[in-house]
Write a structure and sequence with these properties.
mainly alpha; 85% helix; 93 residues; single chain; elongated
Amino acid sequence: MIIVFSLLAGLAWGALFGLISALITKKAVAGDAHKLSALSVLRMLIDLFALAAVYFTRDLLPLRFEFTLIATAVSLSLFGIVAAFRIAASLKK
């Protein structure tokens, strides 16, 4: 059961930071579409922070670290893919 809680916590944590990253990207692209290369660095830093937070809290939370980390990475990746497709679709208009 702890594995299920670890996966759910990782998915929720990754979704939170994925949403934050997508919102920042959406706001910045709305102003200028030429900022995408700088935004990719910012998004990678946000992802790194989310994964580092999971790493540094591994002894504080009663969750399985490896499952939480993998679920966080999967959630961050899915949000990144969805955000990229939505931004690309909005730039085509």
